[in-house]
Amino acid sequence: MANENLKEELRSLISEISEVDDIPDDADFKELGIDSMMGVEIVAAIERQYKIKVDDTELQQITTLTKSYELVSSKIAG
Fold first, then answer.
1. Furthest-apart CA pair in the chain: how many Å?
2. How many angstroms separate the CA atoms of 22 and 77, rounded?
3. Please, which residues have CB within 8 angstroms of residue 34's CB and are 6 or more apart in sequence?
4. For the chain, how many structural domains are there in total?
5. What is the DSSP secondary structure assignment for residue 21, as one 8-state letter?
6. Which pTM was predicted?
7. In angstroms, rounded to a whole number, what is the distance separating the alpha carbons of residues 22 and 10?
8. What pLDDT digit, counting tens, does each position of 24-74 carry?
9. Domain range for residue 66?
């Protein structure tokens, strides 16, 4: 899977769950109005779609699209 495709898939997934049309790469999710409940939904969707496990200790890393992408990308590669 190409890296740019992964980032765009994540952008689409996060946008769909949060109902925020524009998800800039480095915008903090809290600033976009994405709350902790949406965050849980986003993580669950990422885990399902990419068949990975996001540990509780890694949850605080998922604060921007770029950080989410880096975490998912490393788990897929690993």
1. 31
2. 27
3. 14, 18, 20, 42
4. 1
5. S
6. 0.90
7. 12
8. 999 999 999 999 999 999 999 999 999 999 998 898 889 999 999 999 999
9. 3-77
